Every structure is written in C-alpha cells, then in structure tokens.
Amino acid sequence: MSLALTQFLKLGDLTKDATLACIDGRHKDCVVGAPGGNMGEFIMLITALERATTRLLRRAEIQRIFSDYVSHFGRFYMHTDHHALAWIAGELDRDALSTEEIIGFKEKERALALDLLTTPNGVGCGHIKGMLLSPSRYDVRRKLVEDALAAYFETLWEHQDAADLEFESLAGDHQETEVIIFEADDEETLHDETQIPMVCKHETVSRFVLHDAARRYLLVKAKDFIANHQELTPEEDRRFRDEVNRLVPLQLEATRNALFPDLPTRVVRIG
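and the corresponding structure tokens:
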C-alpha cells in the first residue's frame, strides 16, 4: 500500500509545539516517532550518563535532571494503553481508570499509584515495559527506569495544569502490518527548517513508525544538554556520546525482537 504523506513538520518545532511520540501504531493523530517517545530517549540518555561517569544516579538526582530537561526542551511525551490502565484500575479496586484521573490523583493516592505505574503490568508502552521486564536486553538498570518513570509522574502531579508533560492512552491491540523508517544521510544535513513527514493513522492500516532522522537531530541537542548540565570532563563527554551511539541500535533491536520481529520494513529517505 502506498504511503500518503500529507502533513509535515519542521524539525525545530519538535522542541516547541510538538513532541517525539512513540513508534506505536495505535496513535490516532499524526506523529513523529521514536522507541518510547521522549521518555525512551530520556532513559537512554541517563543510562549513558551513568556509564560515562561510572556512578549510579539516585532518584532525587534523576528528578532534578528530568525537571531541567523538560524546562529546556519543552513538551515531553509518554503514553500508556488501555490494558495497563485496566490492570491499575483492578489493583485499585476501580471499574475503570483514565489518564485524566491518574493526573488528578490526590497526594494520599500517589504512593500506591506510583508503585503500580512503575511496574511492568502498569506500563502501556511496549518499549519501556520491555526495559522493565528484560533490562539486560536493553542494557539498562531496572531501578533507573523505575526512577525515571517516577520523576515523570511526580512532576505531572506537582504541575497538573502544565502543558509541558503529555500523558496519552492508546486504545486497541497491536495490529501493525509494517515498519516505516524515515532516514537521512547524517545529522549534519538536518537543521531547524528541515521539513519532515508525519505519518497519520490510516482507517484500515496500522504501522510502527520510526523517524530516525528526527531522532538523531534531537539527540545531538540532548547530548549537548546533558554534557553541559552535568559538567562532564572531556573524557566523560566522549564516553557519554559513544555510549548513546551504542545504545540507540541496541535498544531499538530489543524492541523490534519483542514487538515486531517478522514485519516488513520500508525505508524512506528524507533531507
């Protein structure tokens, strides 16, 4: 089936009015996708930071990095799905649960909710859930993943009226029929004004969508931010960037093997 590309987005807008969504094919809107969306990228970055500095990040420090990261880059996306919400609702002895209700949890409800939201059954993103279930395949530390998720939800609860954090629930089951990867020759050819295509949900066709070009463009900026924010030495900076570059294909392959090992892949060149 041909691919209709009817909406485009400037790369520079990804840190302003748009977000890096997940590759999940259940999106209803037009998206630019990377594994796990903004949260998947953030977890990868702080994993690389730990390796570069040879020290473990504690929850309070991850919370500080997360808050500064969101303040610097703007909107931040993470999704769940109806399966995870139904499981959490059952654990809380409720008939149903929505993302709006999670965002509106009162302080006395949050501790138990946080335990559920950082447990594999309570995570609706297949990429991040995979990190919790099989951390060795993603080469991540499970506690770091849990703490990154906690940073997101604690920030969401503290600033419930903020537009910076986007929390979406995707409905239905996975029915993707192919993987589409948007590539560019290298990030040097990409700039703020580069127009990239967005993939919009088709009435009958669902696809996993990876915007590799947009992802690499944003990672250049994200690596610079983390290196400066953490005041890395030149040697730490080199190790950090090398580690990010190593984790990008490794973690994508882990999710590919878990979610869509046999689907055909189509590559579309842009730039």
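(Above: one complete record from the training split.) The mean pLDDT is 88.
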